[in-house]
TrEMBL record:
This is Lysine-specific metallo-endopeptidase domain-containing protein. InterPro entries: Lys_MEP (IPR029463), MetalloPept_cat_dom_sf (IPR024079). SMART domains: Aspzincin_M35. It comes from the Bacteria. One of its GO terms (molecular function) is metalloendopeptidase activity.
Amino acid sequence: MAHVGCTSNANKKVGVVAEVCSPDTRTHTIAIHLDFCELRDFSYSQDSQVSTLIHEVSHFADTFGARDVVYNMSECLKLAKSQPELALQNADSIAGYVFYGG
């Protein structure tokens, strides 16, 4: 991530399979970690390569500029009910919308 002006925190977090530098609107680089290759290609009910890429793309400043408030759909649904404006800024909520529609 250093080549696009960011410092990776992935080695400090368990389960990180991909990451982006949200201000990187020139190259839109997505850093793919080895565990990404172990994910299923597509799934409606579990993490997948497709859902991970949608999640990561939503972080770029020129797409949604999304944050990581909560993860997984059950938590996203709770967030949507309790704080809908915050859910609109959450990367997993955006990925869920793409998968399940509005």
